[in-house]
C-alpha cells in the first residue's frame, strides 16, 4: 500500500521515534541497574577493570532498532559508571546509521571511531574491549595485533567465550580463522558471565578474558611469541565486514548506483544478517516497528481527513451561531 506522507507527518513521526528511543535506552539502563545479573557481573569485573584507561566497543549493531544492541550499550555504560572508569566509550560498527552516530556522539557524549580497523587496534595502555557477539575474526585480529609480551597484558576482553569458540570447531579450521584465539586460551584467564538476565539472548556466551601470566607460565615460553603471521581469511568464511567490503558498499552508495529502495533493502539485510553468534530478534522487531509506524501514519491521515470533513466549509463561526439564535457573546455591548 502506498502512502503519500507530507513533511509535517514525517517530522512528527521522527520526533515520536526519537523520544521513544531515548526513553528505551534510559529504561534499559534502569533495568540493568536493578538486576541481579549486573550485580554479579560487577563482582567479577571490578577487580580486573582497575587501571583500565580506554574502552573500545566493536560490533554493537543497530542499537536504535534492536533491543539486544540497546541493552548491550546500556550494559557497557552501566559497567563504566559502576566501576568508576572515567574513559569515554569509543564505538565502531560499520552498520551504524547517521542517527546512531549522532546519538552516540551528541546525546550520549561517547566517541565514534571513523576507520574500519577490522579489530586491529594496537594497545599501549590497559584497554577494555567490549565485543558483544562479534565475529571471531575481529577478536583474532585484535589478539594478533597485540601478540607481544608487553602488549597482550593490556588487552581485557568481554566477548564470546574463547572456550566455546575453541570447543566448537576442529583445530584444523581454527588454525585458519581463529589461530590466535586458539593460542590465547593458554594465556588468558576466562571468567564466564552467568547469563541470568531476564532476556536470554543478550549476554549469552559472554566471558571476561584477561591475561593471566602468573597462573600460566606458558607466557614465559619464548616460543609462544614467535609466530606472528598476520591472519587472512577466506572471503566466504568472513563474518566481519572488511575494509574492502565496506569501501565497495560505500562507493556504490555514493555513486548513486543504488536506487533508494534497493539501498534501503540492502541496509536492512546487512543490519539484521544472522550469524553463527547471533539469533537476531531484530528482523521481527523491524517488522513490528514498521507496522507501528504504518499504523501511526494511517491514523494521522484519518484524523486529518476527519478534521477536513467536519470542520470544513459548512461550519459556522461562534459569532454566526450566536447571531442565528439571538444570543450575545460575553464581549458584546449590553
Ligand atoms: C552478530 S552481530 C552482533 C550484533 C549485536 N552486538 C548482537 O549481539 O546482536 C555482529 C556485528 O559485528 C559488526 N561488524 C562486522 N564487521 C565489523 C568490523 N569490521 N568492525 C566492527 N564491527 C563489525 C556487524 O556489523 C554486526 O553488527
Automatic annotation (TrEMBL):
GO terms for cellular component: cytoplasm; nucleus. InterPro entries: SRR1-like, SRR1L. It holds the Pfam family SRR1. Signal peptide: none annotated. Residues 43-210 form the SRR1-like domain. Belongs to the SRR1 family. PANTHER family: SRR1-LIKE PROTEIN (PTHR28626:SF3). This is SRR1 domain-containing protein. It comes from Anopheles melas.
Amino acid at each position: 500500500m502506498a502512502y503519500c506522507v507530507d513533511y509535517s507527518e514525517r517530522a512528527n513521526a521522527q520526533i515520536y521515534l526519537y523520544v521513544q528511543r531515548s526513553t528505551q535506552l534510559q529504561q534499559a539502563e534502569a533495568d540493568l541497574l536493578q538486576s541481579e545479573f549486573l550485580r554479579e557481573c560487577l563482582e567479577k569485573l571490578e577487580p580486573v577493570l582497575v587501571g583500565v584507561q580506554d574502552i573500545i566497543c566493536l560490533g554493537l549493531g543497530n542499537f536504535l532498532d534492536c533491543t539486544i544492541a540497546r541493552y548491550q550499550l546500556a550494559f557497557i555504560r552501566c559497567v563504566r559508571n559502576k566501576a568508576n572508569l572515567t574513559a569515554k566509550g569509543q564505538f565502531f560498527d560499520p552498520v551504524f546509521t547517521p542517527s546512531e552516530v549522532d546519538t552516540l556522539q551528541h546525546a550520549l557524549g561517547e566517541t565514534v571511531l571513523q576507520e574500519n580497523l577490522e579489530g586491529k587496534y594496537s594497545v599501549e595502555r590497559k584497554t577494555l574491549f567490549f565485543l558483544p557477539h562479534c565475529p571471531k575474526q575481529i577478536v583474532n585480529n585484535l589478539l594478533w595485533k597485540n601478540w607481544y609480551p608487553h602488549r597482550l597484558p593490556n588487552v581485557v576482553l568481554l566477548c564470546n567465550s574463547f572456550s566455546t569458540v575453541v570447543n566448537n570447531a576442529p583445530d584444523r579450521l581454527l588454525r585458519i580463522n581463529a589461530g590466535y584465539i586458539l593460542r590465547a586460551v593458554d594465556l588468558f584467564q576466562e571468567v564466564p558471565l552467568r547469563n541470568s538476565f531476564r532476556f536470554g539472548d543478550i549476554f549469552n556466551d559472554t566471558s571476561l578474558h584477561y591475561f593471566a601470566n602468573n597462573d600460566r607460565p606458558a607466557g614465559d615460553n619464548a616460543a609462544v611469541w614467535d609466530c606472528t603471521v598476520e591472519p587472512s581469511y577466506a572471503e566466504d568464511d568472513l563474518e566481519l565486514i572488511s575494509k574492502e567490503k565496506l569501501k565497495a558498499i560505500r562507493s556504490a552508495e555514493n555513486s548513486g548506483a543504488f536506487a533508494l529502495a534497493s539501498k534501503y533493502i540492502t541496509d536492512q539485510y546487512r543490519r539484521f544478517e544472522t550469524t553463527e553468534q547471533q539469533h537476531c530478534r531484530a528482523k521481527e522487531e523491524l517488522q513490528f516497528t514498521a507496522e507501528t509506524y504504518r499504523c501511526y501514519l494511517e491514523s494521522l491521515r484519518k484524523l486529518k481527513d476527519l478534521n477536513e470533513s467536519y470542520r470544513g466549509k459548512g461550519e459556522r463561526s461562534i459569532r454566526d451561531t450566536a447571531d442565528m439564535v439571538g444570543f450575545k457573546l460575553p464581549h458584546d455591548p449590553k
